[in-house]
Amino acid sequence: MPYFLCDLHIHTALSACASDEMTPRRIVQRCRATGLDVIAVCDHNTASNAASVVKAAESTGLFVLPGIEAQTSEEVHIIVLFRDIATSQQFEREIIRPALPPVPNRPEIFGRQLRVDERDHVTGEEQVLLLNSLDLDTAGIVEAARRFGAISIAAHASRPAHGYLYTLGMLAEPHPDCFEFRNKPDALSAVKYWSLEGKGCIVVSSDAHSLDAIVPGRTALRLDSLGFDEIARALRCRDSQRVMVLEVTA
């Protein structure tokens, strides 16, 4: 059973806080250059650029999961990873958009929110500010993810800004399938402090907002085959032999 290196938290130029250089082809090229096998595209409160990254990755050997980084009413960030583009779009349409305040974006303050196709051509800009809290709490997002058969991950879980553990101050029910950290020492410390052993899978991701922030994979998934079902089984099994956080040696 081979291991695949993954990064389950990468933004595109549709996230206002991300660099305009975060276009589908550039992301794919950078990820392949760093040796990644699996990535997830997780823009703030939208999956609109995910299809372009999936198309850009065709025939490259890079497996792309469409995702959304939802910001809950408590200002907690929860990553939701989907089986396919259609499911991600349905989740955005039925769950995210009705709960997103209709506040216009101000690019001069927050940054541009660019829709980009698989050839890196800008096709438009999102006019509603995506960097906003939903009228939906953390439990609601986790429950909705389960209904859609999606994987839920507490993004940068122990970080003061928008971190699940730091913000909520406890492991609430229902809790996400996984907990994300920025490196292995942070993960080990959080597992001990918050008593996370057996509570959910631990992953390390880049949360990349620029190309140079995409680094060689820090999480390895042991999979029978490369596909959503196998990835979901690994991330939900809570088995350190299926999901390994790697030491950073360089």
List the main descriptive attributes of the protein structure presented here:
TIM Barrel; globular; two-stranded antiparallel sheet; 9-stranded mixed β-sheet; alpha/beta; 22% strand; 250 residues; 8 helices
Distance linking N and C termini: 26 Å
Helicity, as a percent range: 25-40%
Question: What is the class in the CATH system?
Answer: Alpha Beta
Q: Kindly provide the radius of gyration, computed on alpha-carbon positions and rounded to a whole number of angstroms.
A: 17 Å
* N-to-C order of helices and strands: EHEHEEHHEEHEHEHEEHE
Strand order of the largest sheet: 9-8-7-4-3-2-1-10-11
Task: Please give the largest β-sheet.
Answer: 9 strands, mixed
- What portion of the residues fall into strands of 2 or more residues? 15-25%
Low-confidence stretches: none
Going by CATH, the architecture would be Alpha-Beta Barrel
For this structure, the CATH topology is: TIM Barrel
Helical/strand content category: alpha/beta
What count of helical segments does DSSP give? 8
Tally the beta strands. Answer: 11
Count of structural domains: 1
User: What is the overall pLDDT average?
Assistant: 95
Write the layout of secondary structure elements.
Blueprint: E1 3-10, H1 24-33, E2 38-44, H2 50-56, E3 63-71, E4 77-81, H3 85-99, H4 107-110, E5 114-116, E6 122-125, H5 138-147, E7 151-154, H6 164-168, E8 178-181, H7 184-193, E9 201-204, E10 219-222, H8 228-237, E11 243-245
Parallel strand pairs: 1-2, 2-3, 7-8, 8-9
Antiparallel strand pairs: 1-10, 3-4, 4-7, 5-6, 10-11
Helix pairs in contact: 1-2
